[in-house]
Amino acid sequence: MNLVISEIIENIKIITLNRPEKSNALSSEMLIQLYNALNDVEESVKVVVIKGKGRNFCAGHDLNELLNDPINVKKHFDLCEKVMHKIRELKQPVIAEVRGYAVAGGCQLVAACDMAIASENAKFGLPGIKLGLFCFTPVVFVSRCIGIKRTFELAFTGNEIDARTAFEWGLVNRVVPDDELERETIELAKMIAKYDLDVLGEGKKFFYSQIEMETFDALSYGVNTIALFTSHRVAQEGIRKFLEKKK
């Protein structure tokens, strides 16, 4: 069964989690297919969108997979880690299009994406503690997205937040009416897809590298990177065009 569906519209790849009857819960097979879909992104693609089919984005990990012995459970989460790595390794910016529930591993997936647009009906949370299982892996990405105390509250209460709160906390970039979600996501993707893939890829790589550094280490890294990148064909052409327009 196709648990993940891919399609390309112009130079945007749309990846859809296709398990709506289970609220797109992440099984091992779905994670394999999601990784493959991300790994197969063509050079012609400038932006990737991840969405869920049906009423929900993703309700987290399939709990049936967590009833196995620890070795098999680790294999399941190793697959999830591979997906997170792939999202960050891609040259292309990745946008989460979020409708309905994005909780536990689904909330982690939103936080791992480079940007996110949420429907007004979206709900976010780290409810693992209610099951006697702390959201160990989701906390890693969510805490880096919204900060320590807000993540601590989500993880230690199991409470949900609505889309507007997620926006105010920095988990999503914008909140839109449900019937405008797809259009708004594609518009944002098209806005980014106008730019050269080398620029997008180098920018994304630099962004995530510098954010873990001390401020002036990051600045030195930025100085070296921009000095090298100004010799790139795209940068040279862009600078010349701008200067000619000014003249």
**What is the H/E order?**
EEHEHEEHEEHHEHEHHHH
The share of residues in extended strands comes to 15-25%
Radius of gyration based on Cα positions: 19 Å
Strand count, sense and closure of the main sheet? 6 strands, mixed
**Strand pairing plus helix content: what structural class?**
alpha/beta
Can you count the helices?
10
C-alpha geometry? globular
Estimate nothing, just give the exact number of structural domains.
2
Output the CATH class name of the largest domain: Alpha Beta
Identify the CATH homologous superfamily of the largest domain.
2-enoyl-CoA Hydratase, Chain A, domain 1
Structure explained in plain terms:
By secondary structure, the chain is of the alpha/beta class. It has two domains: 190 residues, Alpha-Beta Complex (2-enoyl-CoA Hydratase, Chain A, domain 1); 50 residues, Lyase 2-enoyl-coa Hydratase, Chain  A, domain 2, CATH 1.10.12.10. The chain is built from ten helices and nine strands. Strand 2, helix 1 and strand 3 form a beta-alpha-beta unit. Helix 1 packs parallel to helix 2, helix 3 runs parallel beside helix 4 and helix 4 runs antiparallel to helix 5.
